[in-house]
Structure formats: C-alpha cells, structure tokens
Design brief:
Elements: E1 2-5, E2 10-14, E3 33-38, E4 46-51
Antiparallel strand pairs: 1-2, 1-3, 3-4
C-alpha cells in the first residue's frame, strides 16, 4: 500500500498489510488530499481518495480494501 500526498505528488507512506489478518495502519494528517494505492500480484489494483485539506474533528477511520483476483479472459471496464 502506498499513500501519496496528491497536492505535492509525494509518497507519504508505504506499508504492507499483516500477512495473516490483512490489517494495516496508516496515519493521515490534516491539511492534505491523499491517494491510497493498493496492489498485490494476481489481483486488480485499487485506489481510494481521502481529502483532509479542511477536515476538522478527525476521528479514526477503519477502511476495508477488497481486491478482486485477476481471472483469465476477464476485462476491466
């Protein structure tokens, strides 16, 4: 998983999820627009956006990211 500060086009954090539970922890600070890019060999890429530029009263967020396996002959729309 890679977390980018979209406004600055800078990689902020790179983490791997726990191999057993799949859990991960990433800290997002206020004042930026973030893109979270999740990939794994054999699975379709997933991206999420978190806009914390003017967010106030930030609370912890639990976000599940489900990746779909790549299947032979499948196409992406």
């Amino acid at each position: 998983m890679e977390l980018f500060n979209i406004n600055k086009n800078v990689l902020t954090s790179s983490v791997e999820s726990d191999s057993v539970s799949g859990e991960y922890l990433i800290v997002l600070t206020q004042g930026a627009d973030y893109g979270l890019y999740v990939s794994r060999p054999g699975y379709l890429f997933q991206s999420l956006n978190f806009n914390y530029e003017i967010q106030q009263n930030l609370v912890p967020l639990a976000q599940d990211v489900f990746l779909e396996p790549v299947e032979m002959g499948a196409s992406v729309c």
